[in-house]
Specification:
Largest sheet: 6 strands, mixed
Shape: globular
Strand order of the largest sheet: 2-1-10-11-7-6
Radius of gyration: 24 Å
Length: 487
């Protein structure tokens, strides 16, 4: 069947010959065996095994419209309320398995390519071949259960060069040659999260404002396998480790971020989705309701992650016998309020869903964008609650090796809790440390702050999507006019 298992996922990743660099050395051998990637790959393999499990099959798959075989439900373009609900249930199942810590779980990019597919018709006027390319690529991803990452953001030097330098001299990502086999691209992209642990990459940058021979060479979108000649991945330092006791989160959920280099990479013509006219970048994002569909998946993850942090906070409070203290009740109630707020926003988006001009059902935008404004501000606050409650307990946390050493009897005697043994108590505090004081936790906080764009970008997205500005202004004008006439 088209849906793949965890074993197939690992085999595909290991089969690729990716030019990937970590700590100054090119990685050789199976990526699934490398300590910087092993935990994450095993976690994602577990997600793929879920959708093959008979217990989940009917909630995580649907029949392919082309073959009738089962494909992943996150590829489903919603046509009605039932489809939208099915998508949400499927996304909840995966989010609950990774507790919201995988920002790039497979359903994230499956949703992205699904959204772009729904607006493929607008490319007919640009180039019918591009429209057909996008439709076929979506079907290819769906039928082969392709694991995708994306590259949207260019490094600062590239953006600056694209604004200030001549086209020939600019280091901004651009098409440098077109031949009978395809288009040749050079440039770089950063924050390609999970770039190394996927099969293919969707590249869709914000175009630089440059025109050359009546076309913009930096205006393009395409998708390619990760191991094309000329592609290279440079990794940041890993925050993960092998011990799930010492590093209960990063040992499972460490998503590597990469700088992706395209050094004269030949992209076949059938993998190009648009080229030359920057207007189609905005139109594809806008008319596909890209950010709305993505926010539906993201809000589901927000809910699950917030529930996990609430459970951790209450567990820490119970361990220290402070669960009913006034400040703790205030903090717990505040997190519950945000959980219910996110659930209400998601429900409002589903109940307010409307069909777009292509016949697909799109959740209401404003409630989902509201969640993307609220969560980045609230997440650091939850982390701070854990830091303050954990206090010095987040610092004095022996490792698992200490519990198999001759010094264990001291740990058992002095680090036990009110009701728990030292080994279990330290496990709880190591979990809190990973969120509140580790490199992994710091990356999670920064990642959530900027997950859907910086604060100004998200605010403008909300402002521009809200349709009642003029109506509300008129409400005030009418109110004032009525009062004035009455007086």
């Amino acid at each position: 069947m088209p849906i793949k298992s965890g074993k197939e996922y690992i085999e595909r990743i290991d089969k690729q010959n990716i030019n990937i660099w970590y700590k100054g050395e090119r990685i050789e051998g199976p990526l699934s065996q490398h300590p910087a990637f092993q935990g994450l790959i095993e976690t994602q393999a577990d997600l793929y095994d879920m959708q093959c499990d008979a217990c989940y099959l009917d909630r995580m798959t649907y029949p392919s419209p082309d073959t009738g075989e089962l494909v992943g439900l996150s590829f489903l373009p919603p046509r009605n309320a039932e489809d939208l609900q099915k998508r949400r249930i499927m996304m909840e199942l995966w989010a609950n398995r990774h507790h919201g810590f995988l920002g790039r779980s497979p359903d994230y990019m499956n949703t992205a390519i699904m959204a772009l597919f729904t607006a493929a018709d607008i490319l007919e006027e640009h180039n019918p071949q591009y429209a057909d390319n996008l439709r076929r690529y979506y079907a290819y991803c769906r039928e082969h259960d392709i694991t995708l990452s994306h590259a949207f953001i260019q490094p600062y030097a590239s953006k600056l060069s694209g604004q200030n330098d001549d086209v020939e001299d600019s280091i901004a990502a651009k098409i440098v040659e077109i031949n009978d086999k395809g288009m040749v691209i050079s440039g770089a992209f950063m924050m390609a999260t999970q770039g190394a642990t996927c099969e293919e990459m969707l590249v869709f940058p914000t175009p630089s404002p440059t025109i050359f021979n009546n076309v913009n060479p930096s205006a393009f979108a395409f998708a390619v396998p990760n191991d094309l000649p000329g592609m290279a991945f440079i990794c940041r330092e890993s925050y993960g480790a092998s011990s799930t006791y010492d590093h209960p989160l990063s040992a499972r959920y460490e998503e590597m971020d990469t700088l992706v280099i395209f050094d004269r990479v030949l992209v076949p013509h059938d993998r190009i989705f648009y080229y030359g006219d920057e207007a189609y970048a905005g139109r594809l994002f806008g008319e596909s309701h890209f950010h709305t569909h993505m926010a539906h998946q993201i809000t589901t993850r927000y809910i699950v992650k917030t529930e996990f942090l609430l459970g951790l906070l209450e567990s820490l409070a119970d361990e220290q016998n402070v669960g009913l203290e006034p400040q703790m009740v205030l903090n717990v109630s505040k997190i519950i309020t945000f959980i219910e707020t996110f659930k209400a926003l998601r429900l409002a988006s589903e109940q307010g869903a409307l069909h777009d001009k292509f016949g697909y059902l799109v959740p209401a935008t404003s409630p989902l964008l509201a969640s993307s404004i609220l969560f980045p501000k609230f997440y650091p606050e939850m982390v701070e609650m854990i830091q303050i409650l954990g206090s010095s307990g987040l610092i004095m946390i022996p490792s698992k090796l200490d519990f198999v050493s001759d010094s264990r009897h001291y740990l058992d005697q002095y680090l036990k809790g009110t009701t728990s043994e030292a080994y279990d108590r330290i496990a709880l505090f190591r979990l809190a440390w990973e969120i509140g004081a580790s490199s992994f936790g710091g990356r999670q906080t920064q990642f959530e702050r900027f997950f859907f764009g910086n604060a100004h970008t998200v605010a403008y997205r909300m402002y521009n999507s809200y349709e009642d500005h003029e109506q509300l202004r008129q409400l005030i004008n009418d109110f004032i006019a009525k009062n004035n006439s009455a007086s």
